[in-house]
Amino acid sequence: MRFLFVGDSMTIGRAGDFTWRYRMWQHLEAVLPGAYEIVGPRTALYEAEADAAVSDAYADPAFPAGARRHLAGWGEGWLHMAPLIGGTVAATGADVLLVSLGLIDLGWYTNSEQTTVNVRAFLSAARAANPRVRAVLLPVIPNVRAEAEASFAAECARFNELLAKTVADLDTAASPLLLGSVPESYDIHADTYDGTHPGPTGEHKLAAAFADALHQAWGVGGPYRARGPAGG
To answer: Which CATH number does the domain housing residue 97 bear?
Structure first.
């Protein structure tokens, strides 16, 4: 089973982060040892000083190089990933997509309706590359801008409604789709370091959202249990 992590700044992480991808790797190692692979064309973290994804300074240097693979980018959203996903799925053989996108789109590039068009283009391209691809799609999670701006909060809520409808409309037996659940306990003041990007507790909660969706809906793996270095 080949997993591809797709996301924006919350998924790629910055230099010094563990990332929720790392937490998910630990989970997969525990529940699917030897039965999975993490794939993707990128491995780096975002480096603020360079304003580019050029860092390999993960918080745990023992994070294996192969497990660092992803398709995520700082400042990239559905708009940016839709043109890339088909080629990536074809090149990597990915058959399970774990996707966390939308905040960047709504904050900088497109409204909820336009973003939904890009979601559909993304899924169409992924399925063209692999007609049996599966995907878990996470709604836009709580963030500081939504807390501060009622209009942006409304746009996020509207997109999440449209995303749920899109998943329901496009789900098929051959290529199943799941809508992940925003963790009920997610607190931007405790689970992020700046109101948006996850810190260690937020990373665990995002990984759990994907892990539990996979287990509950498709019987993949098992329930999420936090693992990792003390304090991390």
So the answer is: 3.40.50.1110
Residue 88 pLDDT grade (very low, low, confident, very high; cuts 50, 70, 90):
very high
H/E run at residue 97: strand 96-100
Per-residue CA distances from 100 to 120, 130, 204 (Å): 15, 20, 14
Tell me the residue length of the chain.
232
Could you tell me if residue 227 is inside a domain?
Answer: no
pLDDT single digits (tens) 174-197: 999 999 998 889 999 999 999 999
Give CA–CA dist 179/210, Å, rounded: 9
Is 224 among the domain residues?
no
Q: How many domains does one find in the chain?
A: 1
> What are the pLDDT digits (tens) for 209-232?
999 999 999 999 999 988 765 345
- Give the C-alpha separation, 184 to 142, whole Å: 10
Q: What is the pLDDT of residue 42?
A: 98
In a domain, 230, yes or no: no
- Whole-number percent of the chain with pLDDT over 90: 95
Using left for φ > 0, alpha for ψ between -120 and 50, and beta otherwise, residue 26 falls in: alpha
Domain around 89:
2-218
Buried b (16+ CB within 10 A) or exposed e, 210-228: bbbbbbeeeebbeebeeee
Is 54 inside any structural domain? yes
Q: Are 32 and 1 in contact (CB under 8 A)?
A: yes
